[in-house]
Each structure stands twice: as C-alpha cells, then as structure tokens.
Amino acid sequence: MKSQRKLWPMGSNRIWCPVLLVLVVIAQSGCSSDDEAKMRIGRSITQAQTAIEVASSESTKEHAGGDLSMAAQKLIQAEEAARAGNYERAERLISESRVNVTLATARTHAAEVQEKIQAAGGTPPNAPQRDAGTQ
Amino acid sequence: MRCCPAQVRYALVVVAGLAMAACATQPDPLRPARERLATANADADIRTYAAASLAEAHRSLVRAAQTGDTEERDHLIYMTNKNLDIAQAIVTQRRAAQQLKGLQTQASAATATTAQPRRKVEELPLDGANSTANVATRKVEENVRSPANVPPSTDPLTRLKDLEPGQSTELSVQNLAFESGESRLSRESKSRLEDLMVQLRSDPSLNVLVEGHTDDVGSQAENLRISLSRADAVKAFLVEGGIASNRIQTIGLGEKDAVASNATEAGRAQNRRIEFVIYRNVTAQRPG
User: Fold this and answer.
1) What is the reported pLDDT for B135?
2) Given CA atoms A54, A60, A62, A67 in this order, what sign does their dihedral have?
3) pLDDT score for B140
4) Within an 8 Å CB–CB cutoff, is residue B228 touching chain A?
5) Do the Cβ atoms of A129 and A108 come closer than 8 Å?
6) Are the beta carbons of B232 and B250 closer than 8 angstroms?
7) More confident position, A17 or A43
C-alpha cells in the first residue's frame, strides 16, 4: 500500500507553518494600510499646495507674504515627514500649513480695506498683528 | 528587620523635596495661549465677528491640555495661536470696513456746496419696466432740494445725473442670484444690473461703493466672507462691462446691517441684498 501523502505538515512544521502564514498575512495588511496612509497624506499635501497657489495673489504676497512662506515651509516639512513614514507628524504639519493660508487671506482682506481708508483720506484703525512663525 | 539608616531616609526626603520644587517651577507651556484666549474672549467684537475662529482656538487649547504627547501638545498650542490671529484679522477688517463706510458718508456730505443729504430712492426698476423688482429703501434725513430744480423722473437711475459733486445716493437690490456659491452672478442677475452699468458707463464722474449683505443663516465669519465675495463678483461684472476698476470699491458687511427681521423668510430675503452707494466725484462737473 502506497503511503498517502500528508497534506498537513508533521512534526515541528505542524506548528511553525501556520504561525508563519499568520505572520505573513499580518505583515501584508500592515503594508497595505501603510500605502493607504501614504496616499492619503499625498492627496492632502497636494490639496494644501493648491490652496497656497490659489491664495498667492499679488495682494496676498504683499500684505501677508510671511504667512504664505510659513505655509509653504510647513508643507515642505510635511513632505519630509511623510517620506520618513511619520504620517502623524505630516498631518499636523499639513493642518498648520492650511491655517497659515487662512491667516494670510484674513490679513490681506484687512489690509485691503485699510488701504481703501487711506485712499479716502482716513487713518486705518491700529490692530496688533503677530509676526508669522511665532508661537 | 532594620529599616534604612536615618541618614539615608533624610537624604531621600531632601531629594524628593528638590524634585517637587523643580516640578513646581516648570513653566506651564499652555499659559501664554490661555492668556491670549482669555483676552480674545473678553473682546466683544471677536466674539461677534470671529466666533468660529475663537471656538476653534478654544477646542485646540482644550485638547492641548488633555494630551500627554508633547509634540501633539505643541501642535495644538500652535493652532490655538494661529486661530486667534485669524480672529484678530477678521475683526480688524470688520472695524476698517465700518470706518470706511463712515468716511464715504462724510466725504459725500462734507464737500457739497449746499448741505444736501442723501436723496431718497423709492424704487429701483433694475429689470427695466418691470415694477415688481425687489426693492428696499433707506431712510434719509430730509431733501432740501427745491422741487422746482429737480427734473421730474420716476426712475432712480435716471436721477443719478442730478447728483451734485460730492453728493451720493443709495440703491439696493435684493436676492441677486449667484451661481453655485458666491463667485459668479447668474444671467438673470446680470440683466438686472445692466441699467446701472449703462448709467455708470455714460457718466464717468460717478463712483460706486458695492456693499454685500447677508441674512443671519450660518456663522458670522462665513457671512462676512460670502458678502464680500458677492460684492467682488458684482464689481467683476461691472469691470467686465467697461467700468474702470478704480471707480468701484467693495465691502462685505455680513449680517450686521439688517433692514428686516431675520425671523421670517421674507425678512431674510430682504437682508440678502447688494447695496450700491453711488456718488459723484467732488471735482466733477455735473453732466448737462
């Protein structure tokens, strides 16, 4: 009688093969979630870059260039963090970039109205402005 | 069993005391942001016009106080400060807009040869002969102009030519429709503004201040942004039609200057409007 071929490993392999199989599956799922995070961060960086480009009018560059520069710097740091695999840090830096774009827009609107006041012969109200980049 | 020798016990107490003292003198990293937030909360204008930014700053600071991650805490403190900067910029713009409006009013009144106030506008048939166009009127103090000197006219646009140098008048258009958001006027809205554009084109000494207004639906910060964006869209349309850009100024006043109650849809419709303050240059000659 021919011996039947065992489909299930015998001896110590009986334990180690399934364990290795499970480890491979876990590693594979980790890789795919890492890819998803990388894609998500990549999209967010692209959107934040677009926001900077849209906000970069001549008026905004003139009145809030510091805030725009800070936004761009934060985005560069976010890209570096993403390349290093530190996605949490990258997301923080992206949100910091976006808030600087919003601040640049708000300051530009305020400055434009103040210019209109000066053109009309008035004196704009003084308002304390923090420098870009200070915490 | 003997416990630690007395010297060791005393040394441990001293070390513990020094450690506690060191901890007590560590600066609180949240304190500057807390103080800034408290100052902003005490500013009525910030609470009124920049409520969204103020709320976001508050949320960030609360999360900063709760997190144990240093990097996350520093990030949240940064966001708190930036949102407070945004709130301050919004309030600066708002205060400047109010001041500009006051200056425009003063300029038109102060340089008139006779102290004539704004003329009352009763109707604005911006859609031509259709007298059912939405109209809002503004109160004026009095009209000292002798009726005998005023050419009879029922159309407020044609009365623009009667403005003296330095005089101004107000026109209001409600429910000016914009395409999907606030960036572009609808075709119907453009046709409603055609008559005004013709008047401005034919009389280069007339300038216009375009005011955007909204109802109170949505946040004040958003309404401020929308109202300015709509005023800019109207300006863009007029500039496309050949009116020089430096003759047109824009302001977004949000929901602040309501002309009707926002409790009803009819009232909100009245508040969603564009107002034009049209004035003749001080040095201009009135067209014959």
Assistant:
1) 41
2) negative
3) 35
4) yes
5) no
6) yes
7) A43
| Beta carbons of B100 and A134 less than 8 Å apart | no
Mutate to test the interface with B, among A88, A101, A135 (most CBs of B within 10 A): A135
Residue of B142, B137, B136 lying closest to B109 (CA atoms): B142
The C-alpha atoms of residue B81 and residue B97 are separated, in whole angstroms, by 24
Phi and psi based region of residue A133 (left: phi greater than 0; alpha: psi -120 to 50; beta: remaining): left
DSSP assignment letter at B168: E
ipTM here = 0.73
Model confidence, pTM = 0.49
Which residue type sits at A112?
A: E
Contact A113 B90 (CB under 8 A): no
DSSP A62: H
A11-25, B130-144, B146-160: which is most confident? A11-25
Of A78, A81, A115, nearest in space to A99 by CA:
A78
Interface test with A, best of B78, B81, B82 (most A CBs within 10 A): B82
Q: Collect all residues of chain B within an 8 Å Cβ-Cβ radius of residue A109.
A: 89, 93, 228
Q: How far is B1 from chain A (nearest CA, A)?
A: 51
pLDDT in the model for residue A112: 93
Neighboring chain A residues of B90 at a CB cutoff of 8 Å: 106, 110
Residue with tokens 């870009």: A132
CA B170, B171, B174: angle at the middle one, nearest 5?
140
Tokens of B243: 């009116």
pLDDT in tens, B224-266: 778 878 888 888 888 888 888 877 866 666 776 677 788 888 7
